[in-house]
């Protein structure tokens, strides 16, 4: 039987390699061309070239990106999709953020929202890699689909263009695929089902080692007939997930130069929270390089979160005063309580609804449950601790993923590590800590006021 007559989106029967429907004869046959699975284990570039219907491996070809002329990206979102009447708010925020991240990328992008779908359409030329990288930093995106946009030049031309596309993207052949054609323009002369069958058949004929799999295709080939053009796409690149920046209120991140707090900021920002940050530095005990490290970390988080206003507060005099007056084993807890108080004042002044820290239960003495109770007691705003139950390695894994790790491990001192006791309390009692703080009464309010006056605001983007 000629392969040209065999495309049918038919169920596979158990145990069969691939079943081809022979419509005329009304019988099924095994596909003699079906490839062995081992043929399909080529590794792809991380984060790229994902194809519908396949979690791992795949006949990915770099040609897909290098040779094809993509003119647009179809942006697929996940969680926004389940929103109700206020969905447009999230969509609009996503459109805005996509516009922001694509602005510095080569190409004149227009970001549009059409019938519940978001497109980023490039002008004549675009830097594909840069555009994908920028889009992969946008919260709210589940998948990024590079799209070839075609003019309607008749069905035969469309069929040929899909074949050319498949040959060009997957030159090694040996893939399983499924056609998914749809008509938003209902007066298009070929119905979706027929398009599936006829284009699929043309692909089978042009790529004899390919076969159809309607349940778990390695490639889902999407053809969408729209009012003014036709979308053709078959690959999807994972997005950052989460909710669009700016849809979740504002939070104040206590950002040290360590590994945990940038991860904490990233995680909360992923839920749509706009970040403001505060860093307590203690010159001359902490250097300008330590401060620059925090600025760099804020900028790295801002790549995802959007611009972050970083407040740098001079904490030296408060630290020295605590050191002078209070038991040394309580230093870190008392210091942390003053950091929280100052951060909360800044948060309220800047419209933040909560504080965010990188604390994790049991990581160090100041983060036992008892210590956290003492730290928390000075706050009236909620304190969000997204890595509270993460192991260090789990936090490190996220920091590696988001690109903050290398900066975080640079060996510059933090104020907490300089004024640290040899044997800090691990089970502080709140009333004991409060009693110790009474020793600060004479000067502490004034010192806090002075510290707040040192507020240096740095825009990190
Ligand atoms: P990180 O937690 O960022 O990796 P770290 O583990 O050295 O740094 P900890 O001593 O564990 O910091 O502090 C716990 C949390 O307190 C930090 O995650 C951060 O939110 C906050 N914090 C500590 N030091 C500072 C600082 N100098 N400026 C702002 N926030 C700080
Ligand atoms: Mg920590």
Question: Can you put this structure into words, describing what you see?
Answer:
The chain is an alpha/beta fold and 461 residues long. The protein folds into two domains: 3-240, VC0802-like, CATH 3.30.2130.30; 250-460, HUPs (Rossmann fold, 3-Layer(aba) Sandwich), CATH 3.40.50.620. Helices cover 35% and strands 19% of the residues. The strands form three sheets. Strands 3, 4, 5, 6, 7, 8, 9, 10 and 11 form a nine-stranded mixed sheet that branches. A six-stranded mixed sheet has the order 16-15-12-13-14-17, sandwiched between helices. β4 and β5 form a beta hairpin. It is elongated. Residues 1-5, 10-50 and 53-67 have low confidence and may be disordered. Bound molecules: adenosine-5'-triphosphate and magnesium ion.
Major sheet summary line? 9 strands, mixed
What's the helical proportion of residues? 25-40%
Q: Please count the helical segments.
A: 15
Question: Unreliable stretches, pLDDT < 50, 5 or more residues?
Answer: 1-5, 10-50, 53-67
Give the end-to-end Cα distance, rounded to a whole number of Å: 61 Å
Ligands in the model, by name, code or SMILES, are: adenosine-5'-triphosphate, magnesium ion
Annotated CATH topology of the largest domain: VC0802-like
Number of strand elements: 17
């Amino acid at each position: 039987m000629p392969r040209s007559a065999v495309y049918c989106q038919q169920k596979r029967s158990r145990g069969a390699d691939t079943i081809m429907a022979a419509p005329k004869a009304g019988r099924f046959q095994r596909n003699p061309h079906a490839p062995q699975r081992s043929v399909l284990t080529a590794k792809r570039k991380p984060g790229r070239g994902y194809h519908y219907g396949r979690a791992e491996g795949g006949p990915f070809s770099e040609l897909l990106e290098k040779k094809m002329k993509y003119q647009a990206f179809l942006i697929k979102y996940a969680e926004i999709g389940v929103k109700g009447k206020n969905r447009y708010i999230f969509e609009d925020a996503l459109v805005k953020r996509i516009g922001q991240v694509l602005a510095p990328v080569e190409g004149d992008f227009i970001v549009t929202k059409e019938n519940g779908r978001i497109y980023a359409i490039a002008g004549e030329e675009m830097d594909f890699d840069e555009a994908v990288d920028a889009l992969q930093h946008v919260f709210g995106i589940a998948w990024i689909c590079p799209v070839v946009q075609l003019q309607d030049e008749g069905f035969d031309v469309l069929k040929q263009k899909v074949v050319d596309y498949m040959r060009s993207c997957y030159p090694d052949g040996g893939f399983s695929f499924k056609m998914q054609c749809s008509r938003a323009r209902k007066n298009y002369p070929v119905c979706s089902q027929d398009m599936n069958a006829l284009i699929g058949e043309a692909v089978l004929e042009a790529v004899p080692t390919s076969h159809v799999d309607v349940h778990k295709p390695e490639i889902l080939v999407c053809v969408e007939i729209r009012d003014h053009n036709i979308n053709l796409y078959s690959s999807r690149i994972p997005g950052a997930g989460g909710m669009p920046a700016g849809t979740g209120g504002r939070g104040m991140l206590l950002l040290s130069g360590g590994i945990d707090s940038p991860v904490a900021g990233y995680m909360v920002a992923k839920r749509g929270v706009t970040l403001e940050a505060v860093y307590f530095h203690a010159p001359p005990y902490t250097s300008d390089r330590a401060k620059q490290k925090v600025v760099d970390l804020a900028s790295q988080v801002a790549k995802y979160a959007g611009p972050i206003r970083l407040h740098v507060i001079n904490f030296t005099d408060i630290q020295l005063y605590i050191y002078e007056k209070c038991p040394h084993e309580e230093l870190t807890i008392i210091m942390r309580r003053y950091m929280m108080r100052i951060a909360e004042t800044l948060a309220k002044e800047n419209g933040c609804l909560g504080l965010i820290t990188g604390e994790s239960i049991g990581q160090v003495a100041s983060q036992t449950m008892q210590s956290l109770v003492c730290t928390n007691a000075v706050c009236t705003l909620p304190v969000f601790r997204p890595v509270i139950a993460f192991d260090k390695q789990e936090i490190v894994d996220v920091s590696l993923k988001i690109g903050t790790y290398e900066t975080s491990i640079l060996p510059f001192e933090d104020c907490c590590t300089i004024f640290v006791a040899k044997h800090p309390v691990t089970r502080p009692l709140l009333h004991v800590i409060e009693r110790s703080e009474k020793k600060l009464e004479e000067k502490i309010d004034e010192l806090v006021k002075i510290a707040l006056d040192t507020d240096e605001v740095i825009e990190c983007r």
